[in-house]
Structures are given as structure tokens and as C-alpha cells.
């Protein structure tokens, strides 16, 4: 996502110097070449030294250690945000570690695809997508406004949620679908793979996402993910009871409720 | 699906007269107008009277009663097939009800979308899609060959499965995904609907399917669907254990296995 942020900033915000840090030299070279960054560093310290805004775009499990590395190097007044898919632990770490006079604001720009790497970077990745910022009672309100306005300038819609609400809702709407897609594909008999149609491939598409990233996310949000799984299993039990009892009308209601709710989700999205 | 079959036959098989039966006059008129059928009937008896091949394209729950209605009218040598998404009960009914000298062969052309109605008919609906035929020890082999060859002439790939294997595998690969999509959308909090991204909408797309059709399918295949749900819930329990125990490596393996399996499914599909 770092590459897409660089490209989007280059196209949409004048007068920024974009400094990239990465541990793969080839990725840094590619980012320089495509104009996603102006300067490249293979260590985080020098990369953040003069930055007004630092955006951490690493897997969720690496954001904590990365914060520790950059803290001593931050300039007075620097704002640090991140793009992690979970927020409670990251925001806790940011608020605990950042030195006085610097500010942490949690962000979750909900954009991207199952494809990773700077070669897939797109300057329009953020257009009309939703960015959730997750302020707490300790968040500096000017820093929050700066971060919100930054994502808006990249074309994003914005929403604010507490880190707790964010992680609970995202478990339902993002982490659970991933888990279900993975489970669904895993339980198939071999012959079923020859039979799967477009519907099946749609449902399981997100199971192709990077396993390391998703391991971090599920672990970091483990309590909420387990609660979401339990909620789903309970809803499936309702269905099992209806099927066992042959309750035709209640079964149809179970299905109609779902179809209507999806229609609502789609309308809200189209209305944006 | 009847409309698409009519259009496909018209474009790809010479010298057929296509007779349509339906209970909605507007749909019959539309089908005549677009050339999907040559003659229209509002009763099944007259529609099938001189037919060499009868294709029942009604919801799964209506195929049995429809078979009873058409049996007395079938010509000697007529072949009857269907497009139902479940096969055990339909094939049983076909074999039990059809008079001597006529033949039933179960078909499941896996094509179509969540959109219903003759206005969505497409002559290329069947191109490269898979058609499963479900012969039993009682199936006439010439009738089976005729039906298989008919679907192939519409552009379909073909596969044969016993009605039992068909219903077991389809529960995993088609009915379970539908149930999961419906459950997933149903358990969301209202605020989650504002947050859902492309991944979520992909995963739940099939939950928009016609509820009446799906009620029939789930009821007809109730035993297998419940077994599929149980299998999935068991696989989710494995995940819960890994999350509770914080078993990072095993968790990543759980995810990698799924991603690799989806890749395999996609490769098989692309290799077709």
C-alpha cells in the first residue's frame, strides 16, 4: 500500500517530499522509478527524521516493533499514523511509545486487493474508498484533523470509530469473511474443485490473500474473531433446526432476511 | 433458464421446433418475441405432446408435480430431463413416474446468475459451463447419450455423477456457500453495512439469489446441507483452538492450505 500512497500523493498533493523506507532494495528501486517516492532508505530511522507525517504500511505484527525503532528519530510535531487492519493494540502501542510533542493517530484505509507489492501500486487506489480513523480520549485533535484531511485529499471518504468499535465491527465484516472463505475452500473434496462455478470462486476469492498478513490480523484481533465465528455458528444452528424440522416458511424467511440485508448494503454503497 | 435454452437452441441447432410452457402470459409473449420459443402454451400437457425432448426448468420443488402432469401426454420414445440443482429426489420421481417407452435423465447445467426471468435470457449462457448428468442403473444409455450430446451442442462441458454423489458434492460447493453468504450478511450490525468493501460484497453476492428457489434446494438436499454445515463448523473449531492457543505457525498453515487450494481450483478452471 505504501507504493499506492506515494503515487496518490504525487498526483494529488503539491509540494510534498515523499520518503520511502523498505527492506527490499528491488522494491525501493521500483518505487523510485515509478515516482512513488522521491528518496529511498533501507533503515526506518533516517527515513522518518524530517517527516511531518509518517505512515506505517507494514503487516500488523510489525507495526509495534517499527514504532519502537522510529520513536527516537521523530521530529518535534511529527504525526505518525498507520494503515493496519486492526487498531486496538496498534493505537495502544502508538500512544504508549511516542515521545512528547509527537502524535499518533490510527488509520485504516479500506482499499487494496489480494495482490501485494509495489508493482501493483495504483494512484487511484483510494478513490471513494473508506478510511476509518480511530481516535481515543488521548488523541490530539489537530493531529486527527490533519490525518483525516490527508486521506480525504487522496480521494477517500472518512469515518471515525473507537479502536474497540473498529476491531469488533471489522471482525464481523472483514476478518470473518476471510475465515469463512478459507474454511469453505479447505473442506472441499478434490472432485468438488472441478465443479466450482463463478459463485464459489467469488465467495472464496479473499482466501487467496497473503497468509502472513492474515495470520497477524487474526491473531491481533483473536477475541473479536472468535466472537464473530461464534455468532455465525449460532446463526447456522438456527438454519439446521429449520431444516431438520422441515419448516419451509421459516426457512424462506431466513433466506429473505439475508437477501434484503444485502440489498441494503449494496444500496448504501451505491448511494455514497 | 428456459429462455436461455430456447435462444441457445435457436442459434446452435438447426431444424428444432421449440415449444414453451409457462404460467405467466407476459413471459411467454416475451419469449416468443425474442425468438426463444416458436410456440407458447399455458398448460404443460399440450406443450409436451409431440416433443422428442422435454426439459423441465422449474424450481426444484415443482419438478415432481410437473412430472405427474406431463406423464400421460408424453409421446412414445420421448426423453425428459430437467435443470434442477438437486438430483436424488427428482431422478427418483422421474424414474418412478415416467411411462414405459419414455426415458428420464437428470441434468444439472451449472449456468445462470442470481437474475431470473426471460428478460435476462442469453444464448451464450451455457458456453464452456459445466453440465452434470446423473445416470442411475435404470437410465437408458441412448437417452443418456442424447441428453449429454444436447448440452454439448449448446457449448457445455459434461460430467457424469450418480444422483447421490451430485447432491453430496453440490451441498459442499454450492449450497453451503449460499448458506454462508446468507448467514454472514444476516449477523452484521447496522453500522457494518456502511463499512463493507468489495471483498464482503463478493462473498455475499450469492445471498441475493431467489429465496424461493433456494428454500426448495436446501429442503430437498437437507441431509447433505446439514452435513456440509457440520463439516464447516468443525473446521472453524480448529481455527478457534489455534487462535485461543496463540499457535502462530499452525494458524498460518491453516490459511496457507486454503490459499493453495483455491489456487488449485482456479487453475483447474482456467485449464478447461
Give your account of this protein's structure:
Two copies of one chain form a homodimer. By secondary structure, chain A is mainly alpha-helical. The first copy, chain A, folds into two domains: 160 residues, Rossmann fold (3-Layer(aba) Sandwich), CATH 3.40.50; 105 residues, 6-phosphogluconate dehydrogenase C-terminal like domain (6-phosphogluconate dehydrogenase C-terminal fold). Chain A contains twelve helices and eight strands. In chain A, the strands form three sheets. In chain A, strands 3-4-5 form a three-stranded parallel sheet. In chain A, helix 6 links the parallel strand 7 and strand 8. The model of chain A has no long low-confidence stretch (mean pLDDT 93). The interface between A and B is large, with 81 and 81 residues.
In N-to-C order, the SSE pattern of chain A is: HEHEHEHEHEEEHEHHHHHH
Instruction: Give the oligomeric state.
Output: homodimer
Count of domain modules of chain A: 2
Most extensive interface, residues per chain?
Answer: A-B, 81 and 81 residues
Q: Which strand order spans the largest sheet of chain A, edge to edge or round the barrel?
A: 3-4-5
Radius of gyration of chain A: 21 Å
Query: By CATH's scheme, which homologous superfamily of the largest domain in chain A applies?
Result: NAD(P)-binding Rossmann-like Domain
CA-CA gap between termini of chain A = 23 Å
Topology, please?
The structure is a homodimer of 272-residue chains.
Chain A: H1 2-12, E1 19-21, H2 25-33, E2 39-41, H3 44-48, E3 53-56, H4 60-70, E4 79-82, H5 88-97, E5 103-104, E6 107-110, E7 130-133, H6 141-153, E8 157-160, H7 163-186, H8 190-193, H9 198-204, H10 211-220, H11 222-245, H12 248-270
Parallel strand pairs in A: 1-2, 3-4, 4-5, 7-8
Antiparallel strand pairs in A: 6-7
Amino acid at each position: 500500500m505504501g507504493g499506492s500512497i506515494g503515487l496518490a500523493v504525487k498526483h494529488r498533493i503539491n509540494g510534498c517530499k515523499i520518503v520511502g523506507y523498505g527492506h527490499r532494495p528491488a522494491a525501493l528501486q521500483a518505487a523510485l522509478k515509478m515516482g512513488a517516492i522521491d528518496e529511498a532508505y533501507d533503515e526506518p530511522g533516517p527515513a522518518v527524521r524530517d517527516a511531518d507525517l509518517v505512515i506505517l504500511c507494514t503487516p500488523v505484527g510489525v507495526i509495534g516493533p517499527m514504532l519502537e525503532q522510529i520513536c527516537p528519530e521523530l521530529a518535534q510535531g511529527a504525526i505518525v499514523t498507520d494503515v493496519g487492519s486492526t487498531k486496538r493494540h496498534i493505537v495502544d502501542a502508538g500512544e504508549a511509545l511516542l515521545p512528547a510533542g509527537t502524535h499518533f493517530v490510527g488509520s485504516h484505509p479500506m482499499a487494496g486487493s489480494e495482490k501485494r507489492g509495489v508493482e501493483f501500486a495504483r494512484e487511484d487506489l483510494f478513490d471513494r474508498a473508506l478510511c476509518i480513523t480511530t481516535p481515543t480520549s488521548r488523541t490530539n485533535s489537530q493531529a486527527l484533523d490533519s490525518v483525516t484531511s490527508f486521506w480525504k485529499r487522496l480521494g477517500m471518504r472518512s469515518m471515525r470509530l473507537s479502536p474497540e468499535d473498529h476491531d469488533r465491527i471489522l471482525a464481523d465484516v472483514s476478518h470473518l469473511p476471510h475465515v469463512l472463505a478459507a474454511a469453505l475452500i479447505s473442506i472441499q473434496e478434490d472432485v468438488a474443485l472441478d465443479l466450482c462455478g463463478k459463485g464459489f470462486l467469488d465467495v472464496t476469492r479473499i482466501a487467496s490473500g497473503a497468509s502472513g498478513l492474515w495470520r497477524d490480523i487474526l491473531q491481533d484481533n483473536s477475541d473479536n474473531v472468535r466472537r464473530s465465528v461464534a455468532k455465525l455458528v449460532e446463526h447456522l444452528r438456527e438454519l439446521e433446526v429449520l431444516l431438520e424440522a422441515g419448516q419451509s416458511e421459516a426457512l424462506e424467511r431466513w433466506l429473505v432476511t439475508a437477501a434484503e440485508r444485502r440489498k441494503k448494503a449494496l444500496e448504501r454503497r451505491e448511494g455514497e
